[in-house]
Amino acid sequence: GSDTYLKMFSVMLFLGLAVLASSMPIDDPEDGGKHWVVLVAGSNGWYNYRHQFVTPANFLAVLRGDAEAVKGKGSGKVIK
């Protein structure tokens, strides 16, 4: 049914974004540390997909350095 479709869509979207993110060059931190990313989606199930959908969009905004897109969300920090 539609629940299975949404689960498959979410998995495929996540995998596609993971491949896209892994292909983007990111400079090493100046202090020699590591980059860490935490993706969090606030929902109690996959059926509420709009919460899940916003998470990868915010992640991509961080990678693009789009501070305006993540203003007021989490730390608001982006990769420059």
The residue ranges in which pLDDT falls below 50 over 5 or more consecutive positions are: none
The radius of gyration is: 14 Å
What portion of residues is helical?
Answer: 40-55%
* H and E string: HH
Which structural class do you get from the secondary structure elements? mainly alpha
Number of alpha- plus pi-helical segments: 2
Mean pLDDT: 77
- List how many beta strands DSSP finds: 0
The fraction of residues assigned to DSSP E strands is: under 5%
CA-CA gap between termini: 42 Å
Major sheet details: none
Q: Note the overall shape.
A: globular
Task: Indicate how many domains the architecture comprises.
Answer: 1
Please explain how this structure is put together:
- With 80 residues, this protein is mainly α.
- It has one domain.
- 48% of the residues lie in helices and 0% in strands.
- It has helices at residues 2-23, 49-64.
- Helix 1 runs parallel beside helix 2.
- It is globular and about 50 Å long.
- The model has no long low-confidence stretch (mean pLDDT 77).
- InterPro entries: Peptidase_C13 (IPR001096).
- One of its GO terms (cellular component) is vacuole.
- Belongs to the peptidase C13 family.
- Keywords: Signal.
- GO terms for molecular function: cysteine-type endopeptidase activity.
